[in-house]
Amino acid sequence: MVRWELLFVVLLAPLLLFPGRFGVLAVAGVPVLWGLRWLDQRHFIRRTPLDWSIWLLLFMVLVSLLVTFDPALSLPKITGVVLGVACYYGLVARLEQPRELWLGVVVLIAVGCVVAFISLFATNWFDKLPVIGSIATLLPIAIRGLPGSPPEGFHPNGVAGALIWVLPLMFTLAWHYRAKKLPLLPPGWQWPVRISFLLTLLLLGGTMLLTQSRSGFIGLLCGTLALVVIPQRRLQIVAGTLVGVGVIAAIMVGPQVMAAYNHTAIAQSAQGFNTETLQGRFEVWSRAIYAIQDFPFTGIGMGTFRRVMPVLYPLFSAGPDFDVGHAHNHLLNTALDLGLPGLIAYLALWLGTAVMAGQTLRNPTDEGLYVVTLGLSGSMVALFTYSFTDTQALGTKPSLLLWLVFGLVGSFHQTTQVALAARQRNGVAPVPQAEADPSC
């Protein structure tokens, strides 16, 4: 059973994604799997750099269950986090050999393709850009009523946030292996796989364009730029300086901008409220900040913002029936759901994964792992940027991709560290970065 832990996690996934009467039983199945691992290997989980962050996050999830005013409303988000943690530890425990690591990458890309294909016929498309909007409106909403999805169809911004996890990775793979031999594939499979790369890019990129999501486009642009910056040390210094200046400017100017939104919001209230505008998001962000100030240590409970905000923090320009499902910012939304300790744990997850990716890129032992880690790093930059103006809240179904990417990065880091230790024992020098990836 320990050997097939990932299979059991997959079997538990429907019960955790759509918790009903058996949701609590499915949650109990995860520690049962870890208990079996202890019986077999004398440890519950494979140790990783993210352990303390994950345990703090799970503790705050438990606190969220205790403080929420509606446990039934919070339960799907809580079970979603449990499923994500189970996927993360399942991946780092199982993916060790090169073939297994590449299989994990294929699964991530396949999930992205499935999301893109279903979204083509299940999304309530925007009509923002003239040509793209007219094409999007031709697609019928043939798939409705999926569990947990809005009755009018998927939101385009949510679709963009899911595709962002895969597109930078596909850009990297398609570019790096455009003329090189793909690893672990016989000669007869080389060109068919390259053609599948192009078809996958067409599907993912075309669906991304149809979303017309400004947050998604900005995030994808930043993620693509990161693919160029990360391998170059000088560009890293320049980019780091620019980001630092931007953060300082945001800290200095942000409060004045947040205070100034008040007058504009009241002036535009007659025109209706729209979270797709920057002004509408400013208003939602201010309500999230009020709630965090009132509940800094525990949060308001996972997934309860849409019910709490109209009662305690009503909007100026929208009635109480207007549905705002999240705070449109992943940092604010995490602090809302899990309090400031939960936000600290969430940021530690991102920082720890970034450090693991950086160590893998600095000390590459395999060209393929270097290329995939670079692509996943671009995906992380893209999603983090996208999430400043939109979000995939922890525990939602798209947020499962976050744990898959973190698990893959953790597996690559673990494999790289084992290989480096073996090289040091044998007196072999590490592979230079330029040799691992000549195209950089």
Q: Could you explain how this protein is built, in words?
A:
With 440 residues, this protein is mainly alpha-helical. The chain has one domain. It is built from 17 helices and no strands. Helix 3 runs antiparallel to helix 4, helix 3 packs antiparallel against helix 14 and helix 11 packs across helix 12. It is globular and about 65 Å long. The chain starts with a helix and ends with a helix.
Topology:
Blueprint: H1 5-17, H2 23-41, H3 51-67, H4 71-94, H5 98-120, H6 130-138, H7 156-163, H8 167-176, H9 190-211, H10 214-229, H11 233-267, H12 278-294, H13 305-312, H14 330-362, H15 367-386, H16 400-426, H17 433-436
Helix pairs in contact: 1-2, 1-4, 2-4, 3-4, 3-14, 4-16, 5-9, 5-16, 7-9, 8-9, 8-10, 8-15, 10-15, 11-12, 12-14, 14-15, 14-16, 15-16
Describe the structure concisely for a colleague:
With 440 residues, the chain is mainly alpha-helical.
Give the key terms.
mainly alpha; single chain; 17 helices; 440 residues; globular
Considering DSSP H and I runs of 4 or more, what fraction of the residues is helical?
55-70%
Question: What is the ordering of alpha helices and beta strands?
Answer: HHHHHHHHHHHHHHHHH
Query: Which percent range describes the beta-strand content?
Result: under 5%
Shape: globular
- Beginning-to-end CA distance, first to last residue: 42 Å
How many distinct helices? 17
Mean pLDDT: 84
Rg to the nearest angstrom? 22 Å
Q: Major sheet: size, sense and barrel closure?
A: none
Computed structural class? mainly alpha
Let me know the number of strands: 0
As for the number of domains, it is 1
Q: Which runs of at least 5 residues are low in confidence (pLDDT < 50)?
A: 434-440
